[in-house]
From TrEMBL:
InterPro entries: Class_I_gatase-like, GATASE, Imidazole-glycPsynth_HisH. It comes from candidate division WOR-1 bacterium RIFOXYC12_FULL_54_18. Its EC number is 4.3.2.10, 3.5.1.2. Keywords: Amino-acid biosynthesis, Cytoplasm, Glutamine amidotransferase, Histidine biosynthesis, Hydrolase, Lyase, Transferase. Residues 5-200 form the Glutamine amidotransferase domain. It catalyses: 5-[(5-phospho-1-deoxy-D-ribulos-1-ylimino)methylamino]-1-(5-phospho-beta-D-ribosyl)imidazole-4-carboxamide + L-glutamine = D-erythro-1-(imidazol-4-yl)glycerol 3-phosphate + 5-amino-1-(5-phospho-beta-D-ribosyl)imidazole-4-carboxamide + L-glutamate + H(+); L-glutamine + H2O = L-glutamate + NH4(+). The active site is at C80, H185, E187. NCBIfam families: IMP_synth_hisH. GO terms for cellular component: cytoplasm. This is Imidazole glycerol phosphate synthase subunit HisH.
Length: 205
């Protein structure tokens, strides 16, 4: 298995798996620690609420496995809620995040933009600030699909890879060494999303 898709009960795992397999990569949905440790790359997806999901992840004993994988240098991709879990805390809940990335998760503050609604749903543009390896060949301004009420706010702006405008610019993807996080759903983002997953899969060979 080249890519382990972590199953902790949060997310549309099957659609991520199918998208990765469509690209020709070996991928498996798993919560088995040895399988995750043996994978060449790891995806942490996520849909839902912060606290229940992070609590389940910890109850399965997967926190240390994730930390080990990232420290070891394996390519690691957090998607949507999965990216948010990598941060220290979230305004959505009371539980601590994994704290692998310094910063917090905040709710959209759209008080001055009454024409916009929360959650942020649908297609929006990626504005490239720092081109990470998974953005190779992706045009600045490419459209991807979002579905979220909260977004990440890194302590260090240098890790922000793309921003997206929704009333104001928010960090829509981050990159630090072998660690990648994206707020949008690549499996729902057409050819652009598949290209991003293909770039990630190439890092896992």
């Amino acid at each position: 298995m080249s890519i382990a898709i972590i199953d902790y009960g949060a997310g549309n795992l099957r659609s991520v798996e199918k998208a990765v397999q469509k690209l020709g990569f070996s991928a498996e949905i798993t919560r088995d620690k040895s399988a995750i440790r043996g994978a060449r790359g790891i995806i942490l997806p996520g849909v839902g609420s912060f606290d229940p999901a992070i609590a389940e992840l910890r109850s399965l004993g997967l926190e240390s496995v994730i930390e080990e994988a990232i420290i070891s240098g394996k390519p690691f991709l957090g998607i949507c809620l999965g990216m948010q879990h990598l941060f220290e805390s979230s305004e959505e809940g009371k539980l601590a995040g994994l704290g692998i990335i310094k910063g917090k998760v905040v709710r959209f503050a759209l008080d001055k933009n009454p024409e916009l609604s929360v959650p942020h749903m649908g297609w929006n543009r990626l504005l490239v600030k720092r081109r990470s390896p998974i953005l190779a060949g992706i045009d600045d301004g490419s459209m991807v699909y979002f579905a979220h009420t909260y977004h990440v706010r890194p302590k260090d702006d240098i890790i922000i890879s793309t921003t997206t405008d929704y009333g104001y610019d928010f960090a829509s993807s981050v990159w630090k060494d072998n660690l990648f996080g994206i707020q949008f759903h690549p499996e729902k983002s057409g050819e652009v999303g598949l290209a991003i997953l293909n770039n990630f899969g190439g890092l896992c060979k």
